[in-house]
């Protein structure tokens, strides 16, 4: 074999390309890919879910590939026949999009050992909900001495220029708007009352954040004292020493199902199922419920404890009573019109 | 190994050397751009029906046009602030000793060495209700209640100006460095005052740098998604956020594509105005 500079270069380039784009090396067994969310989700899953899965499945290889829901959908859409992701995690809005675009498989419910233990709201045949996200009122206890009790408290004159909200880009912002609509006699199909209420809220508004994460910064900087907020995000802030508290308003805390799905045509279907099973076990959910994660469990066998029992619910029965679930199918129908309206009307 | 051609023009370069980059651009820039254009010419999100609906929607909608207008205006404001603040620094750089020059260049480059996110967060700390500015003014007794600086147009302009400042200062330093210092002396000895010398000699000769700096700053300021959304908040809508909303939250890719194409054309128009000015100034500078 003659080795000259050119053939050496070609080989080197090819090897380099294979290293840089592992997808080039044709379909062979690759590890299970779980697209979780970035940030605290990734940390929690890396520390708890992945070890539990590997322990139960003879150290099966898997990787976390954290990305936003929309990116997960785009990536799977781009390669439907041989998707680069095996397990997706979604908020309610994107979950319906993924199901609507035929990107996920029905969950093999009859095979599952834990599905039947999930509380009714978490039993989704296209992909169960291993976790809930909860939205309530967050406030700065140093500035606000009497804890707020209702969404309506945001409109109190004493909070002039102290209230923060987020726009409708986020699940949180949209869900909150729907809740306000319901409070004022509207529904998922009619948010007119909420927009009227927003008009009245304007004198109190100090900030309309571009995303829920920005709300955290605004609390830290004393820019706002009260806002709708995500239970988990607030726990992270609290752990950092920021004076914030979470209360579930008397109208009910908004609960979003975070659902987990097997991607259609996944080459690791069996392991994907096993990973989802692991996420539904009482053991994993109990660990994730404890500090520092404080993720609300969906398996009814988990005994609520700690901060979650104190602030949210002591048991499944109370949880059902205190949480409101929204109809995201209805919400998705009109969401773009609402976002457009919000863009136009909310200027402070 | 092949045999090299016997005679070769040493002053010409083979285009082959540029081929890797050209190929790279072809695959990763031109192709996606064409795909974007293709997508924007569809009336439905599935991309089945051809039509100009997305463009019509944008161009007949006063709200969308106002977003475009305010974005272009924002760029102009940031560019103006950068020019006014950056020019003296560049001018100073040419007139101090080598040691101070190192200090100035370090100060100018420093922002580039930290991430945009970090710089933007620093501005949140500075502009906030209990931020440095408000705390200072309150302790001095100048104001009673904190000023609203964060989430205002003013805040966005100031933060963007700082974030993009190096893009203005560096071309200015280069341009001013090319001016023969003797010209200043000549102008003075012919009886012109310092201001006259500045406006008649220094400024015209530095115009190529001004144009280059303005183009870079402008393009960077109007597309600065992070700074715009963190300092401007959710209710001040500029084109990058509008685009993100349509593409990411609403999955309305055809409309998002149309927005990007329109935005791209608007920016190209502004940049070509700058370039035309640059060409004119070259004639002016040489005269």
UniProtKB/TrEMBL annotation, chain A:
Transmembrane segments: none
The UniProt record lists the keyword Signal: yes
CDD domains listed in its UniProt record: PBP2_polyamine_RpCGA009 (cd13589)
InterPro entries: Sperm_putr-bd, TAT_signal
Gene Ontology terms, MF aspect: polyamine binding; thiamine binding; thiamine pyrophosphate binding
Biological process according to GO: polyamine transport; thiamine transport
Annotated source species: Bradyrhizobium betae
Record key words, sorted: Signal
Signal peptide from the UniProt entry: 1-27
A Pfam cross-reference name: SBP_bac_6
UniProt cross-references to PANTHER family, sorted A to Z: ABC TRANSPORTER SUBSTRATE-BINDING PROTEIN, THIAMINE-BINDING PERIPLASMIC PROTEIN-RELATED
One GO location term (cellular component): outer membrane-bounded periplasmic space
Name this polypeptide is given: ABC transporter substrate-binding protein
TrEMBL record, chain B:
ABC transmembrane type-1 domain ranges (all copies): 68-274
One Pfam family from the record: BPD_transp_1
Cellular compartments per GO CC: plasma membrane
InterPro entries: MetI-like (IPR000515), MetI-like_sf (IPR035906)
Record's subcellular location: Cell membrane
Topological relation to the membrane, as annotated: Multi-pass membrane protein
Residues spanning the membrane: 21-41, 67-91, 103-126, 154-177, 255-277
GO biological process: transmembrane transport
Keyword Metal-binding set for record: no
Annotated keywords: Cell membrane, Membrane, Transmembrane, Transmembrane helix, Transport
SUPFAM superfamilies named among the record's database cross-references: MetI-like
Record-stated family: Belongs to the binding-protein-dependent transport system permease family. CysTW subfamily.
Entry protein name: ABC transporter permease
Natural source organism: Bradyrhizobium betae
